[in-house]
Amino acid sequence: MGGGCSGFQYALDFTNEQRDNDFVFEYEGLRVFVDAISARYLDGTQIDYVMGTSGAGFKFNNPKAVGSCGCGSSFAV
């Protein structure tokens, strides 16, 4: 989604329904839906859940990102 200090920001949400033009990926029984527009910016992205001294959360490793903000929640392509 657009926003953040670098232009785009990562957003996750829960749903049970696929929308028209969504790409569907399945990992160990978990279905992940990605809309067609976002898919072109996220191709090759790996998502991990990490726990560290500053807290826990999702970490995005996006090979298409050419820059990001200091907190890592937004990126530029």
Describe this structure as you would to a colleague:
The protein has about 80 residues and is mainly β. It contains 1 helix and 7 strands; from the N terminus they run βββαββββ. The strands form 3 sheets. A 3-stranded antiparallel sheet has the order 1-7-6, with no helix packed on it. Strand 6 and strand 7 form a beta hairpin. The longest helix is centred in the middle third of the chain and has 7 residues. The protein is globular, with a radius of gyration of 13 Å. The two termini are about 15 Å apart.
In brief:
This protein has one helix spanning 36-42; strands at residues 8-9, 23-27, 30-34, 46-52, 55-61, 67-68, 74-76.
Chart the SSEs and their pairings.
Layout: E1 8-9, E2 23-27, E3 30-34, H1 36-42, E4 46-52, E5 55-61, E6 67-68, E7 74-76
> What count of helical segments does DSSP give?
1
| Largest sheet: number of strands, sense, barrel closure | 3 strands, antiparallel
Averaged pLDDT: 83
Q: What is the distance, rounded to the nearest whole angstrom, between the alpha carbons of the first and last residues?
A: 13 Å
The secondary-structure element order is: EEEHEEEE
Identify the overall geometry.
Answer: globular
